[in-house]
Design a protein that fits this description.
This is DUF1868 domain-containing protein. With 195 residues, this protein is α+β, with helices and mostly antiparallel strands. It has one domain. It has five helices and seven strands. α2 runs antiparallel to α5. It is globular, with a radius of gyration of 17 Å.
């Protein structure tokens, strides 16, 4: 595990309200979240907070459940650069796309949204994932942190077994705050499509 500090998360953790402009097509943003997923996430957050020492708590930012989402494609990034694979500054859940529906959607978008000369290219992740943790600072004992983190996740996954849910809605959202730290409302959700 790498512990790259994310300055935007430092601002979010301090409740600073940086305005951004981004356009994103995403799933899993609507409320409420699927019950099995929500229950798992609440248990995970509870276990991490119970087991992290003070330094580990101050080193990490755990996303509120309302801001979790699956990026299908970023049409306009609020940041200048966008990694194709998950960032080293993020902890994330990686999903198995059983019927390749997310990849199918991504390919449709690639086929339809062809940038003209001088326009930025589409930014499409190469995996299906949800970021849920970022680093404010490097923990004092990174090895101990990583061992604890993986142990907690493993124990919880063993109890939970498998989490399955369908993406039944995708949306086009205005990313007016970094990392979708926005409300799921008519100002930020510009359009939705049932799947």
């Amino acid at each position: 595990m790498d512990f790259e500090i994310d300055p935007l998360i430092v601002e979010i953790a301090r409740k600073e309200k940086r305005e951004t402009f981004g356009l994103i097509i995403c799933g899993l943003f609507h409320q409420p979240k699927p019950i099995q997923f929500a229950n798992f996430y609440h248990q995970l957050i509870e276990q991490l907070q119970e087991n992290f020492n003070e330094d580990e708590k101050q080193s990490t930012y755990l996303y509120p459940i309302a801001h979790l989402h699956i990026t299908i494609t970023t049409l306009y990034n609020f940041k200048n650069e966008y990694p194709q694979s998950p960032e080293k500054s993020a902890g994330y859940f990686q999903y198995k796309d059983e019927n390749n529906s997310i990849e199918y959607l991504r390919q449709l978008i690639r086929d339809i949204c062809i940038p003209e000369n001088g326009q930025p290219s589409l930014q499409i992740p190469n995996i299906v994932h949800t970021s849920f943790l970022r680093f404010i600072k490097k923990p004092n004992d990174p090895i101990k942190f990583e061992e604890k983190f993986h142990r907690i996740c493993k124990e919880l996954l063993e109890k939970t077994n498998e989490i399955c849910f369908d993406i039944d809605e995708i949306c086009l959202a205005l990313e007016a705050r970094p990392y979708m730290h926005i409300d799921c409302d008519e100002f930020h959700v510009l359009d939705t499509m049932k799947c």
